[in-house]
Amino acid sequence: MTTTQLIRTRLRKMTLLMGLVAICFMGCASTGKVKSAMTFPADIAQPFLVLDQVIDGSQDGQRGRLGRSLQFILGSENKISLNQPTDMVVDAQGRLLIVEAEAGIISSFLETDGVWLNTDRVSVTTIKHPFGIAAGPEHLFISDLTSEVVIVLNYDLEVVGSIEHVDMQRPAGLYFDDKSNRLFVADPRANRVFVFSDSGELVAQIGHTGSNRGLLRSPISVTVDPNNGNILVLDGLARKIKQYDGGFRFISSFGEYDQVPGTFAFPKGIAMAMDGTLFVGDAAIGNVQMFDASGALLFFFGETGTQPGQFLMPRNLFMDKSQRLFVADPYNNRVQVFQYFAQP
């Protein structure tokens, strides 16, 4: 390209840029924000959920409308594409951290004007296939599909230690309970849930001894009821949700194998709202089901597909303090965010 051609090309870009800047000052929406409200159910005045955002990596790290317009015109090294995200958490600093199992990456997002924008992508040498993530007040916890330990990071995403136990075989789903300051580690291969203090000391093991009903066959995901401290465990092979009290004693369970609403085919993730509503994602059916405290089905949403509100084998779920439900949608290479509204 000659000097004259280069100058003309730059002038054309700058002309287009100025037009976009003018448009953006009048109101410019992010590509990650859902343009038209998608509610679930769609036919009632006060729905359970509204699809708020689809995080697929198309957002960039430049804050402000002008910065995003510049990157649109001139290109950017900060454009990313999520690669099979399997879990996510909002940490004590307000960052959304997404682990990408296939890429071995931890992606960091900050919320700006109601939109999650990517600010960093970190590859930790000792973590090859990050699968689960949980956040304590000072540390982050990562499970790795290739490791028998839980990696501990500080908030600068630097490895500062590990949590291990002689019986731990393949830690998967992680959950940090900020009321008891305990880390729950679901280990499907060891058929139990390990409970550690925030300093890494073993507190208990759930599901490997006791009555037959309380035994775990392949625990995948854990959450804690914010109202009573009861522990809910998704037992994958049993296709059941099993509940234990704060003393780790079995209380009850519900669920059975099938592919109709109210049953489980290939459940992979759970999360709980402040009102006690339990969300269960099913990879085989491609939906998320909602249950009350007794295990009665309240509602289900989603189906297998690639459109917003659809899923391809959804994995882990996470509910933040603003009652937003994050759903890892790994084979669509995205995370979908739903605002949950408790019913009157």
Describe the structure.
This protein has 344 residues and is mainly β. The chain has one domain (38-340): TolB, C-terminal domain (Neuraminidase, 6 Propeller). 10% of the residues lie in helices and 41% in strands. It has two helices and 25 strands. The protein has helices spanning 3-26, 65-74, and strands at residues 33-40, 49-55, 85-90, 96-100, 105-112, 115-122, 130-135, 140-144, 150-153, 159-163, 174-177, 182-187, 192-197, 202-206, 219-224, 231-235, 240-244, 250-254, 267-272, 278-282, 287-291, 297-301, 317-319, 324-329, 334-340. The strands form six sheets. It has a five-stranded antiparallel sheet with strand order 1-2-25-24-23, with no helix packed on it. The protein has a four-stranded antiparallel sheet with strand order 3-4-5-6, with no helix packed on it. Helix 1 runs antiparallel to helix 2. The longest helix is centred in the first third of the chain and has 24 residues, at 3-26. The termini are far apart.
- Average pLDDT works out at 87
**Rg estimate, integer Å:** 22 Å
Q: Which superfamily, in CATH terms, is the homologous superfamily?
A: TolB, C-terminal domain
- Report, as a whole number of angstroms, the end-to-end distance: 66 Å
Total strands = 25
Q: Name the helix and strand elements from N-terminus to C-terminus, one letter apiece.
A: HEEHEEEEEEEEEEEEEEEEEEEEEEE
What is the second-level CATH architecture?
A: 6 Propeller
**Roughly what percent helix?**
under 10%
Shape: globular
Can you list the strand order of the major beta sheet? 1-2-25-24-23
The biggest beta sheet is recorded as: 5 strands, antiparallel
Low-confidence stretches: 2-31, 60-77
